[in-house]
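Duplicate of #3305? Posting structure anyway:
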């Protein structure tokens, strides 16, 4: 609230909270002063320059923010189930099953499903219901066309724009790649692949590019999950990211773009051989 007055008021320290709390004694407030001068035991304050902001003692989350948080969590979990094919392509989406599985109410589940439908991970048919979107090898060409342009550009931008914080994360990812030995668990390798790609996207510092690439990467990952049982040498596919990450650390735009191009082309070739 903003007190508007051209008058000067003198208040003692004990009167300060209640005097500025809109007539509600004892109310906790945060007071922002542009000009103030101490006079004797109190303060001389130009009320027209005071902004009083109520302060919550417990910082409660508003119902809207809480709902958004639950929706985001539901979105993340359901998206992961779809990408990993735990929810099989073409299977029926049951709100009640998801509510029970995620231990959430209907509202965040519905909001999450609406967002996933916008990403084409869920298909909605009037009077029939919702289904997990199917996976068609024909989609691989279209997805690769998008990734072949935008993800290559992202690698180049990351080499140019990566901050010290980005570089620290990338350096850690390289260490994790170097630590790959033997036959690591598939889940660990896929998790590492996801973190590598998301970090490259993030290092572009272009939120629109990040959002777009994340959507297409999700579709590519679904195809990968469908073919995993027929893909050999998964660890090698992850290790090949090293050159790309090192190029970004070195700030070598052309080398980063070249490495990303080779990676995307290799991914498409591997998947086609396995399907």
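Output from current build:
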């Amino acid at each position: 609230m903003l007190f508007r007055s051209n008058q000067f008021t003198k208040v003692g320290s004990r009167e300060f909270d209640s005097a500025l709390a809109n007539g509600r004694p004892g109310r906790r407030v945060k007071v922002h002063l542009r000009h103030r001068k101490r006079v004797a035991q109190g303060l001389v304050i130009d009320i027209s320059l005071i902004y009083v902001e109520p302060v919550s003692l417990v910082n409660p989350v508003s119902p809207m923010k809480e709902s958004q948080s639950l929706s985001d969590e539901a979105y993340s979990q359901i998206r992961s189930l779809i990408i990993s094919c735990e929810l099989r392509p073409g299977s029926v989406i049951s709100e009640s099953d998801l509510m029970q599985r995620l231990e959430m109410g209907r509202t965040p589940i519905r909001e999450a499903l609406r967002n996933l439908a916008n990403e084409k991970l869920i298909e909605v048919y009037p009077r029939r219901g919702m289904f997990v979107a199917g996976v068609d090898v024909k989609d691989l060409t279209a997805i690769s066309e998008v990734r072949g342009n935008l993800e290559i550009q992202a690698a180049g931008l990351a080499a140019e724009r990566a901050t010290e914080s980005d570089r620290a994360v990338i350096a850690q990812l390289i260490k994790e790649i170097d630590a790959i030995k033997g036959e690591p668990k598939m889940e660990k390798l896929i998790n590492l692949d996801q973190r590598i790609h998301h970090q490259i996207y993030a290092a572009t510092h272009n939120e629109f590019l990040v959002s777009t690439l994340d959507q297409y990467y999700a579709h590519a990952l679904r195809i990968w999950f469908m073919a995993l049982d027929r893909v050999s040498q998964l660890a090698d596919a992850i290790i090949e990211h090293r050159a790309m990450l090192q190029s970004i650390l070195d700030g070598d735009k052309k080398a980063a773009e070249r490495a990303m191009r080779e990676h995307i082309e290799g991914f498409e070739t591997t998947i086609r051989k396995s399907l």
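Confirmed duplicate; merging threads. Confidence is low (pLDDT under 50) at residues 1-67. The chain has three domains: 8-54, 63-132, 138-274.
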